[in-house]
């Protein structure tokens, strides 16, 4: 079905190591039209890749509404991050670097967030995955 609807985005997503047909289809159908997100921050928030925060007048009131966003996209990007680590030696080096500053779980979440931002720009500009640019610090 996706080959009829959006074959370009399907092929673009499959250029990332670890994203196969199922994950690519999940991401495509859960996002819908990428142009509906005016910024990468709005996309990351919709994908549950960032923490929710309630703020008013400069005061933080905790993380109310933790379940806001699309759970399927959160799963897809988390799964893609784990699969990227399985297939890519340079990504393992990057995650080890992150683990010096944070726990393994937070490092995986950071990698999933970075992957989500990357997918946003790939689909918005219709460009393929560039590993050197992605893993650049």
Topology summary:
Elements (H helix, E strand, L loop, with lengths): L1 H4 L1 H7 L7 H11 L8 H7 L8 E2 L2 E2 L10 H17 L1 H11 L4 H22 L5 H4 L3
Antiparallel strand pairs: 1-2
What would you note in describing this structure?
This protein has 137 residues and is mostly helical. Helix content is 61%, strand content 3%. The chain is built from eight helices and two strands. The protein has a two-stranded antiparallel sheet. α3 runs antiparallel to α5 and α6 packs across α7. The longest helix is centred in the C-terminal third of the chain and has 22 residues. The model has no long low-confidence stretch (mean pLDDT 88).
**What spatial form do the alpha-carbon principal axes imply?**
globular
Q: What is the oligomeric state here?
A: single chain
| Computed structural class | mainly alpha
Query: What is the radius of gyration?
Result: 15 Å
Look at the structure and give the mean pLDDT: 88
